[in-house]
Protein 1
Amino acid sequence: MSWLTPDINFKIISPELIILIVALLVLILEPLLKGRSKNILPHISWIGVALALVSVITLWNREELGFNQMFILDNFSCFFKIIFLSGTLLVILSSISYLKEEKIFHGEYFSLILFATFGMMLMASSLNLIVIFLGLEIMSLCLYILAGFRRYDLKSNESSMKYFLIGAFASGFLLYGIAMLYGATNSTNLKEILIFTQGFENPLFLFIGLGLILVGLGFKIASFPFHMWVPDVYEGAPTPITAFISSGPKAAGFSALLRILLFAFGSLHIDWSFVLWILAVLTMSFGNVIALSQTNIKRLLAYSSIAHAGYVLVALVAGGDSGISSAMFYLLAYTFMNIGAFIIIIFLGEKKVNLDDYSGLVTKYPILGITLALFMFSLAGFPPTSGFMAKFYVFSSAIKSGYTGLAIIGVLNSFVSVYYYLRVVVIMFMRAPVDEVQKVPIPFFLGLALLFSVWGTLHLGILPQSFLTLAQNSIFSPF
Amino acid sequence: MNIPILSYMVFSPILGMILVMLLKKEQVQGIRWVSAIFSFIPLILSFFLLANYDPSTSKMQFVEFHKWIPSLGANYHLGADGLSVPMLFLTALLSFVSIIGSFNINFRVKEYFAFFLLLETGMLGVFCALDFFLFYIFWEIMLVPMYFLIGIWGGPRKEYAAIKFFLYTLFGSVFMLVGILALYFTVEPHTLNMMELIRRAPELSRGFQLIVYVAFYLAFAIKVPIFPFHTWLPDAHVEAPTAVSVVLAGILLKMGLYGLLRVSYPMFPKAALYFALPLALLAVINIIYGALVCMAQKDLKKLVAYSSVSHMGFCVLGIAAITVTGISGCVFQMVSHGLITGALFLLVGVLYDRAHTRDIDAFGGLWVKLPVYSGIMTLFCLGSLGLPGLSGFVSEFMVFIGAFPVFKVIVAIAVLGVVLTAGYFLRMIQRIFLGEFNPKWEGLPEISGREIFTVTPLAILMIFIGVYPMPLANMIRATMENIVRLVGG
Amino acid sequence: MQFFIFLIVSIILVVASILVIVQRNPVVSALFLIAALCAQAILYLLLNATFLAVIQIIVYAGAIMVLFLFVIMLLNLRKDEFGFEKRKAQRFFGILFAILLLVELGVVIKIGLSKIPSTEFSLDPDFGGVQSIGKALFTDYLLPFELTSVLLLVAMVGAIVLAKKKL
């Protein structure tokens, strides 16, 4: 009997391994540490994330395949890993004080966040639908649990349950789609699917499979009409987890979608772009219009995150080099500004989630008020913030590809969105403070995360060139 | 001469803003003086601009160019020509005057001055940006502080007014954004450089020009405001604090006109010709409608606000004519309206601070009690209604002369607007300053030295331009001729 | 022939799956789930994936479902949620079928596994067998295989986090 050596390449998977090892380490240490010494767990976690970030950067500008063509290391995946890891870093840093406040400071929390990150990273750098599916499952499973982490809170339970049921349903669609594609192309490898789709005849169930995959990933990125879980889940989940769900998994979903649509199905752009066009318009409009009437800030940001998914879909419809890089840039910018906005909500706690609770915030916490205003303006797409650059880039790529109508709808949508983002600012700046509760100092690590997000939002807004170059260098060659 | 003078101008208020933010909330006097000093710097620099400007050419001067975001084709590109320099000067002057005029603000002082300085940066930036990306950024940046200034320090309906102002303006600018992008991708090779785009304008097809012209027109017309987009203006002006009204009327309204002259005309000449007549019609609606609404106003500030609508109509009429005299008249009117209306708002604010009412009918015979104030107010009212010898007359006269050969009937109707203007201003003067003294105002103090100081430069300039318009006319002539030549009207 | 078996088994699978959801009684729904899993195993057999079919029955229909049933029993469901009416006949048939099953098992063992008819397809004799699956899992599909272990770990952690009374 001959010995077969599997195609193992630890080097290209090192960031993932670091995250996995740290996650396991935290999991093992949790029962061993007692009392105050548990405080070290979040620090282990974020240091691990930082190390992974470093290792991603060292792997920049290489292109290697491994694990029987299932895993790919390229700049595209590295860029997305930077997005995920930055998001995770911000969430971990801002969770510490929150968890103590809510009395749910458990090591499993950090471990699960790291596992979820691990799943996202796999999704971004996978060339095989099976691995994409597994990465998605690992990520989603962690998120279902994290959403219900405030176990004593009914809303959190509801959030977890809803997310789980709908998520499992979506996974079913995705898996069914993968099976269909396998049936049509005899492979789950995206490269082989690409070769197949370049042929002359494409069987019907290839498109059915693609449609099912779109549905499955549509749930994850929260695009219309697969968005109905978003508001309830966002509202009920612990706020740091809401921040996490709204940035990382969305970006992960988009990374998979980009690979599948623009890489494997790049030659069929005409066929699917029409569907996506409609989805993008509906997603943007729906998210923005419903957000107008929200009074709970978590729900408001939930609908806003639906709308932002719509903007990224615009970039996907545009396709081509600039479409891919603009989607990536957008997701990076969105991570900073969105988590930044959530950090302030995290600081104010679970009880202050109504917009009225934000009255006069700026007189009480000037720094928080000003930064939240900055994030709101960024989400609304105002210069000189990252939100503006990102939107500008997305819409310019849409116009470049000839989708002027879509760009106009997008621009009008971002006009509508200004109204509700501004409402938050109005309440913070122009209303009198409601109560005179004692001012609490801002915890150090939360402040650090806030600083990091402000830096990201401003840097990507004022001097975006370095990151634009990064995004442009990290596209995979589209069809 | 390689000093980046425009950059200094644009960014010194930002520096002031940062300094103000670093000061403690309680150091009110310090905050005020820092703001005053940092808004005085652009004023000094603008004198420098005036002194060094070469009026013999229509080329951009004081140009600064740096690469900024090559992947988006955006550059840091500033410059000034005969159109920009007067506007930069006006902006610097009115900002400084308004900041001095805001010394009586006692509520959230630090934020107020920080926002004001940010606003000044935005305004200065718009008038000298030569790259579309930069232009758009300044255009939008300006909105944010303005929104806060109206929304926090405004009158009773401030939130409504602030949101309305913001959404109206933003609605226009999103179309401008699409227009910019469309322009960027149509021209080969892609560029956002405004000067380059002007050179390439003849390559654009007529249909494309018409569409993009409309997109830009929406942004500019809302800002001016041209009928029927004017409804935000009375709300914003009335609710805004005095100094903000000054800036709003004195500078922000001019941006729409500046945009028409800088962007729409040179870049879309065919569309400009096509839309000249509709524009003239809208202008005359502005003039007559604004004046008629003024006749019915009881609120002093609202009256001044609607008079702006009317006066902006003259500017638009001058632009629509596409003659050198007409467009020069428009620029004159821009400057003169900035000076006069700015001063009028300041003076209305002076009266409101003392009497806490702006109801015209509540006053009467104030001349007896406040001779100095009444004298100054009357002087500016006369300037606004176009008394010969003051700047208002010169500019309106130029507009009429420039436009008459093109639109005879329309100009004839527009002249009626002057009569109406005289009507409502004289009526206002009569109600407030003449007639029987209302004893209720026995204790009203006279205008203070600081307040006189704020309006003095405006008065001097108004009289200077009215008596001796040649320096300004010389300065802008080459540029205006160039615009008319580009449009080919 | 194969097609008819496929058709019948598929119908059983679909109907059983629907019944799993529709049934109010959790025990009955678990039993239908077993039926569905068994039908699935037959589908695997039709595809010549003998190893998978056996695993399917042993692991899913066997171990996991027994666990499910235990959990349902332990849940202390109320009578109306768990209403079985015990009948005499039930006990009788229960015993009868249990004896029949035992006899069948004895017969199968006696005849031996050697006489199972081979299929008419000319496939790799090892297709769907232990060796080929093992080879695939540990070489080509090593990454997904290992990822599955992470997935299971996460699921375990999650179950504990959500269910444990005091963390």
Protein 2
Amino acid sequence: MGIDVAAVIDALRKLARERGASGQEGNVPLFNRAFLKTVQTFGRTYEIGMIAAYKLGTGKWMNDTEKFPAMVKKGKIALLPPLGGDRKTVRRIFRKTKQHKGAEA
Amino acid sequence: MRYAYYPGCSAESTARDMHQSTLAVARALGIDLVEPKGWTCCGATAAHQTDRLLAVSLPAATLTKVQDMKLDMMVNCAACYNRMKVANHEILAHSGIRQSVRELLDRDYDGSVKVRHLIEVLLEDVGLEIITNALKRSLNGLKVACYYGCLLVRPPGILKFDDPENPTSLDRLVKAMGGQSLDWPCKVDCCGGGLSLSRTDVVVQLTDSILDMACRAGADCIAVSCPMCQVNLDLRQQDINQQTGRNYHLPIVYITQLLGLCLGLRPDELGFKKLMVPAANVLKKVNELA
């Protein structure tokens, strides 16, 4: 029987985070929070919102900014947030996941 | 042939070219794609690194919508495809997870929606013979390094997409289009995935290694089917060139863009202008079939 390496890494990451030993991950948890916040708000990823929240957290505002005009020109970055997703269901998922975590703790 | 088409969030931003070329190719081949109304984010890497239940429930929210449509789901984004299939697996394998997802969604989902990648649909449902007969142009010996990355093939026990060590699905399509698919060792290497912003240094290092090997193999372009791989390999060439003195100008194209060209579609119908590294050499090479 094979070992699901990704699942093992996810479980170890979760344990490390719970024990406050996840400092070495650098800005990855911050990025994940910024990403999920836009999903929670809009039901889908909103990249400009995510990047802004992430940069606000890191304080490194200038990283990659030189690519932004070309990406906007090529339509590779959506300026407006996505509005077509079922936000109600997604918000419920986030709310209930939080409650579930609270019940586990 | 009718599928519930899940575009994924990047279809509305960084991967508009993938989305555009997917729709164009599907139209040309008579594949009917219907978007599930109100589809939502699969959670991507961020969710599965954060919480197991969240990582299953987010894809399940869309899978239930597809279940109501009574269609198979077709996905082109490798990351979304991965999360959808893993969610189905978790729900089928763990009754406790299924129960928790039921509480979160306020409805039961049994993990039964069939999730297909576009490449599987093209090769298994449409078939190479029909595709070959529909071609109007040839890649004319274009040297293509087919790059699968991680998320199409791993974990292999769950995804069951091709051979996880040496996949050939994209290569078979390239050959059918008259291209030369290269034998190279980085087909399933990692490009750094979702670390593009949070660990740019890692992504630069990994993509440099992949681009270097593709160039050594003599590639005219790299063909992908994952928006994260495409963006990392395309967008980071400028950084690598600045940081290492290299001189990469290797187009990173979606397989649907190549297929669209060969089906006789125009580059502007396939989002070629959206590529950061222009694919002029690819467009020049493609010629009309006699």
